[in-house]
Amino acid sequence: MAIFGFITGYLIPFILVLSLLVFVHEMGHYLVGRWSGIRVTAFSIGFGPELIGFNDKHGTRWKISAIPLGGYVKFWGDEDASSRPDFDGLGHLTEAERAQTLGGAKLWKRAATVAAGPIANFLLAIVIFAVLFGVYGRSVSDPVVSEVRADSAAAAAGILPGDRLVALDGSAIKTFDDVRRYVSIRPETLVTVTIERNGQRQDIPLVPKRTELTDQFGNKVEMGLIGVVTNEQSGNFRRVQYTPIEAVKEGVIETGQIISGTFRYIGNLVTGRMKADQLGGPVRVAQASGQMATLGIAAVIQLAAVLSVSIGLLNLMPVPVLDGGHLVFYAIEAIRGKPLGAGAQEIAFRIGLAMVLSLMVFATWNDISNLIG
């Protein structure tokens, strides 16, 4: 029964969510590649042995493969699923045939085709958030303090109940959630809080404390806190509804905040302000998918939007075998006026593959350690 519960509660939601995001990502590559005149030989959801598939009239093999941890589009002239050029094979093609391969297409077409995958993920996130905001609106509250927790950064800095927080590091804030979002990714980092008290504004410097919390599912989450609370009376709790245009705007803003927050989080890892065990791999994503499924379809859809942004950013990392690595190669080619040699690219792809596999092993080990611990 435990295994059945894991499959239905965690594994199936995870596979469904991930497969959707992978499909959108690869469809971005596929559509722009086809538009650029590049032939596509395979479109796969998953890796490894094929489970089911069919050929379309253009010669593309559409398939679902056994390992549901990604996917790929294989273009004509690629040596493998990482879009590594088959240098030997390309040398035997005519000029017209080379133009139909990814490696032989014009530089701007290659760059557009590669970048289209992550861009598709970002666009999907914007659409999802826009739909959620358009349908459900958003619960907001004013950034007015009703309580200051003892021994907190806010208490030490002199913030008082009744203060309205109007800006953080000079950037205006509108809701209490803006405060939480901003300080949560800035533990142990100096933040200047602008408050309004009795009609007068003043700047108060403080440092959010790095704090480990437990969420409603029992997961440990590390973030920065300043120790202020609002309530229904002070915060004027309400639900804001958006027009379609406003919903799209909010979707763009939300996606941008996730992107900037991700970069800030990576910076925190590098500087040691957050621990690396917060990194999540496939196991944690599966766990989160199952947990969100218990909260309803809206929660699952919102998680899909966040993961879509994460997939887009991950693929833009400047690592060979990822989209970002290909874009780095293309940038070097644009500067040099010619591509890197086959030998240099082969070495880079091997290093990139080792880096990706190492990161996956590390993240999965973190997941398992956190579950056991």
Distance between the termini: 23 Å
In sequence order, what are the helices and strands, one letter per element?
A: HEEHHHEEHEEHEEEEEHEHHHHH
Low-confidence stretches: none
Which range best describes the helical content: under 10%, 10-25%, 25-40%, 40-55%, 55-70% or over 70%? 40-55%
Oligomer: single chain
Strand order of the largest sheet: 6-5-7-8
Question: How does the helix and strand content classify structurally?
Answer: alpha+beta
- Major sheet description: 4 strands, antiparallel
Roughly what is the average pLDDT, rounded to an integer?
A: 86
Write the layout of secondary structure elements.
Layout: H1 2-35, E1 40-55, E2 61-75, H2 87-90, H3 95-98, H4 107-136, E3 138-140, E4 147-148, H5 153-157, E5 164-168, E6 171-172, H6 176-184, E7 191-197, E8 200-206, E9 209-214, E10 220-225, E11 228-229, H7 232-235, E12 238-240, H8 244-271, H9 282-293, H10 297-315, H11 323-336, H12 342-372
Antiparallel strand pairs: 1-2, 3-12, 4-11, 5-6, 5-7, 7-8, 9-10
Helix pairs in contact: 1-4, 1-9, 1-10, 4-8, 4-10, 4-11, 8-10, 9-10
